[in-house]
Each structure stands twice: as C-alpha cells, then as structure tokens.
Amino acid sequence: MKETMKQRIIDYFFLILACAIGAFATTAVMIPNGLTIGGLTGIVRIMQYYVSFDFSLMYYAGAFVILIIVIATIGIKEAKKVLVVTIMYPAILFVLELFDFKLLEEKDVILAAIFCGVFSGVCNGIVFWRGYAFCGTESIAKIIKKKFMPQVDISKILLALDACIIIISAFIYGRNIALYALVTQFIASKMVDFIMYGFETKIVQVDIITSKAEETIEFVMKSLDRGVSSRKTVGEFTGKEKKELVVLCSPRESMLLKKFLAQTDPGAFVTVLHVDTVWGSGKGFTSIEKDI
C-alpha cells in the first residue's frame, strides 16, 4: 500500500512538471508568436481565431467533450488513462495565462517553433513515460479505429488527424504558420523519443534462418558475447523445418554477424529490425527497473 502511494506521488510530481512545461510552451511561446500545432491544441487555436475566450477555458471544454465521447464509445477504462491529465493540464494552463509571460523578447517565429517543439515534446514524453496520456486527437484516433477503421493502424489515423488540423490552420493563419507547425510537430515527436528512450546505443533485432545454426549460435555467444534464442520454423515452399535464431545486438555487431554468415552460409535468410530500446539485464540494454 505504501509502495503504491509512493509511486502515485512520484507520478503526480512528474505529471505536474510535464503539464507546467507544456502549458509554458503554449502560453509563453506558441500563442504570443501566433503559432499553432496539431492535436487538441491546434483545434483550440483554430477556434480561438473565431471566438475570443481564454485558451485554457476552451481547452478545458474541448478535453471534457472528448472525455465524454471516450466514455460513451470506448468505455470508462480508457477514460481513466486520460482523466488525470485532462483535469491537471488545463488548470495549469489557466494559471500560466494569468502571468502573461513571453519567453522571447521579440517576435521570432523560427525560434518560437523550435522551442515550442522542444517544450511540447518534453511534456508529452514525460506524460507517456509515466504511463498516462492526453485527452486529445489520440483519443479521437482510438475511437475512429475501434468504431470505423479497425484495420487501420492508430498511428496512421493520428497522423491524418494532425495533418488535417495543420492544413485547416494554413487557411486561417497562413501557409507559413502551417509549415512552422510541421517543424514544431517534428521536433516534438523527436523529443518524445528522447525522453522515453534517451540517446542510448540503438539495438537491432537480427532474425536468422540458416542451415549452420549451431555454428552461428557459437559465433554469437563466443565472438559477439551476445545471447541468442531460437524457435522452430517451417518453409512452406520446401516443407523443411529449420531453426530460426533471434539475436539482439548493436548495429556494428550485426555487420560482424552478416560477414560471418556470408562466409559460412551464403544461403542464409536474415531479417534486421530496428528496435528503439530493450529493457533487460543483458549487455548494452537498459535495466527494466531504471527510472520507474
């Protein structure tokens, strides 16, 4: 019980920090420089062009409308994931709006687009890292996927939604502002990856089907000092059963493995997959207990 309470306190500390950073990006950088972005923030920016309400109040209204739709269509379980941030983020937005602070001394849309992307990405990254989410276009994308397009990947639906928001912004705020929004969106996505996974050594997954399975296992374990797992696989064309080896290693080590296979079994079938991060106790991997 104490451990759960401690974990929740830590989560809320980071959520408050994340929401403060994200709200600062909006109130002190984005709005003073006339910029926009995708997501619910972009929707509110479009509405703000026609309605003269405070940004925070409009964001609150939009977030709660989406939250109600989520509860009605997907269920309360999904709504719980976004409830905390739905309440916390607009409240911090409202407080920071009162200060009317501007980060840049004079209007500079290029710098503003960059810094807005950095701050927004840090905000989203921390929220995702702690296992929470915003009630915005991601929630809308989940609804669309579940109710109308179950065969389409949610990331593609989300990309389409954000693209539509930015395109509409181009008609309202101008093409240049829409292009700056793309810059902001790109930087934000990269910052999310950095916050969640860091600049650690990238890992690749190498899947190997070879007639020299035992020799390959020995090379991986002794020469590369890596672990290897195997599973049985059947080629439907030949009907032959072989071992499929799975190796997680660095890109450099994958090239050494490729050279070994080229010499020992030129007929080997190899698939190399990019992996953002690996949690485990192996060499070069991030401990699963780190930053929890």
From TrEMBL:
Domain of life: Bacteria
Recorded GO CC terms: plasma membrane
Domain DUF2179: 226-280
Bilayer topology annotation: Multi-pass membrane protein
Chief place where the protein resides: membrane
InterPro entries: DUF2179, N-reg_PII/ATP_PRibTrfase_C, UPF0750_membrane, YitT
Keyword Cell membrane: yes
Pfam families: DUF2179 (PF10035), YitT_membrane (PF02588)
Coiled-coil intervals, chain numbering: none
Keywords: Cell membrane, Membrane, Transmembrane, Transmembrane helix
Subcellular location: Cell membrane
Membrane-crossing segments per the record: 12-31, 57-76, 83-104, 110-133, 154-173
Protein name (database record): DUF2179 domain-containing protein
Provenance organism: Emergencia timonensis
